[in-house]
Specification:
267 residues; alpha+beta; Arc Repressor Mutant, subunit A; 4-stranded antiparallel beta sheet; 3-stranded mixed beta sheet; 12 strands; elongated
């Protein structure tokens, strides 16, 4: 009986040691492994927020040129980092993100427009009228020259004369201001000659805007048509009357463009 009790006690002790060992083993098991924190510069492969697509909108509009009904001159529009050119004054710029943009609109012979536009979810519209960059006094001088050179010509011929003068303004071969082009002189054989005969002989001063308002208005109309881009001269920078120029004159050796009325235009 005593022997049996000793065996029972020994078995109980062994069982307790075994249970204690299991519990001890359980406490040293490693915990669940957690994902390490994201390190800078290391891509994160876990699913996250999808990238946002910017909301885009459009800007459209019309650019007018002061004094003219139709626009035929190239007009350049800068908005943000975008550059668009319109040849009739109408434009549409697509794919602009929402926000405020600086905008600049420019064309030859006109003052540059600078402003700011706000692009929203709704398509935006812009209407701007560019003003002529020449002073009133220079425009009056211009009208006087057109009248003196082309008063008896059809309107198309008057516009062509005005356009040829403007073509000199933008040409690198001539002065770059309207007044300087009109009053330019050249030296031949030590003698100074005006480029336009009405300036030389004084006919440029015959037109009086106050006493001849209709004639002055007609000359201004031709001027504004040319400023807006009409060029019946086909890019000419000069003209002459073949009936008044001798066959040996140097001007007859220039490249001709078109003849309108009494004037032959040339490059």
């Amino acid at each position: 009986m005593a022997k049996q009790r000793l065996v029972l006690i020994a078995a109980t002790v062994i069982l307790m040691i075994f249970i204690s060992g299991c519990a001890s083993l359980g406490t040293v098991l490693p915990p669940d492994i957690e994902k390490p924190p994201i390190q800078p510069g290391v891509p994160d492969d876990s699913p996250g927020e999808p990238p946002t697509t910017p909301v885009l909108s459009n800007l459209g509009g019309r650019i007018k040129l002061a004094g003219a009904d139709d626009v035929l001159r190239p007009i350049t529009i800068h908005i943000g980092d975008r550059v668009v050119t319109t040849y009739d004054g109408h434009f549409t710029i697509e794919g602009l993100e929402h926000g405020k943009y600086e905008i600049a609109i420019s064309a030859d012979h006109y003052q540059t427009y600078e402003g700011q536009v706000t692009i929203t979810s709704e398509p935006s519209m812009l209407e701007v009228t560019l003003q002529v960059k020449y002073a009133k006094e220079d425009l009056e001088l211009f009208a006087r020259l057109v009248y003196a050179e082309a008063a008896g010509e059809p309107q198309l011929g008057q516009i062509a004369v005005a356009a040829s003068i403007l073509n000199r303004v933008v040409s690198s071969d001539y002065p770059n201001t309207l007044r300087e082009v009109i009053l330019q002189t050249v030296e031949v054989g030590g003698v100074q000659y005006y480029q336009y005969s009405p300036v030389l002989d004084g006919r440029i001063w015959e037109l009086d805007p106050e006493s001849q308002p209709e004639a002055y208005a007609a000359s201004l109309e031709a001027i504004y048509c040319a400023l807006a881009g009409q060029d019946p001269s086909e890019g000419a920078t000069g003209f002459y009357n073949p009936s008044k120029v001798p066959p040996s004159h140097w001007v007859r050796n220039q490249t001709p463009t078109v003849r309108i009325g009494n004037h032959q235009f040339f490059l």
